[in-house]
Design goal:
Helices cover 49% and strands 16% of the residues. The protein contains 10 helices and 8 strands. With 220 residues, it is α/β, with parallel strands linked by helices. The structure holds adenosine monophosphate (AMP). Adenosine monophosphate binds next to helix 2 and helix 3.
Length: 220
């Protein structure tokens, strides 16, 4: 099945900047931002059946089932804004999900896997000061005016600390990354579509590095 012309996966530990960079890519190239974490958090906030089912897993920093997220992604690709393709943020998280994605998009449907690299100490530092808008997902530092006032500058939504940005949940997610998600790097490297950028730079510098990669591969 071909679901779009340009699909890419953004991989990285939590706090590496996946959400921010994915949003920028989507705006620049008119792609759908497909963030399984955002979809799940929105469901929790809205108190839907799905939200009630996954709330405790999200709060603890664990992973929800492959079947559930695979279906969310499949449905998300059917939406109008995904016609040109999508930037996958937080999916796939393991080899099983990567295989499901390959089945959904077809053998050559995924053009690139971008890995935003960041050491664990920096992940800890960044996440403990991260605040996020509950409505639109825009992230702030705890010292930013929007975080201090608690009101998002983009949409006016509430700016809060994520329940899984607490030390125990952060460590659990780092462990899961090493065990389940890191193997995706060699999975995509073998397919010749892996590119790594340094996440320990300003948002603009990381975005520039990503655009350089896209150009060098002739993708834009
Ligand atoms: P994220 O915003 O990507 O860090 O995701 C937040 C939480 O949503 C994760 O800690 C998981 O509980 C859940 N989640 C998001 N994406 C996935 C996925 N691909 N597979 C399983 N669980 C996921």
């Amino acid at each position: 099945m071909t679901t779009g012309q340009f699909n890419l996966v953004v991989l990285g530990k939590q706090g590496a900047g996946k959400g921010t960079q994915s949003q920028r890519l989507c705006e620049k190239y008119s792609l759908a931002h497909i963030s399984t974490g955002d979809i799940l958090r929105a469901a929790v906030q809205a108190g839907t059946t799905l939200g009630l089912e996954v709330k405790s897993v999200l709060d603890s920093g664990g992973l929800v089932s492959d079947d559930l997220v695979n279906k969310l992604v499949e449905d998300r690709f059917k939406e109008e804004d995904a016609k040109r393709g999508g930037v996958l943020d937080g999916f796939p998280r393991n080899i099983g999900q990567a295989e499901a994605l390959e089945e959904l998009l077809g053998a050559n449907g995924l053009k690139l896997c971008l890995y935003i690299e960041l050491p664990n100490e920096l992940v800890m530092q960044r996440l403990s000061s991260r605040r996020v808008c509950q409505e639109c997902g825009t992230t702030y530092k705890d010292t930013d005016p929007a975080a201090i006032s608690g009101t998002c500058e983009v949409c006016g939504g509430d700016v809060v600390q994520r329940s899984d940005d607490q030390p125990e949940a952060i460590q659990k997610r780092l462990d899961i990354f090493e065990r389940d998600t890191a193997p995706l790097l060699s999975f995509y490297e073998k397919k010749g579509i892996l590119e790594t950028v340094n996440g320990d730079e300003s948002v603009d510098a990381v975005a520039d590095a990503i655009n350089a990669v896209l150009s060098s591969r002739g993708l834009v």
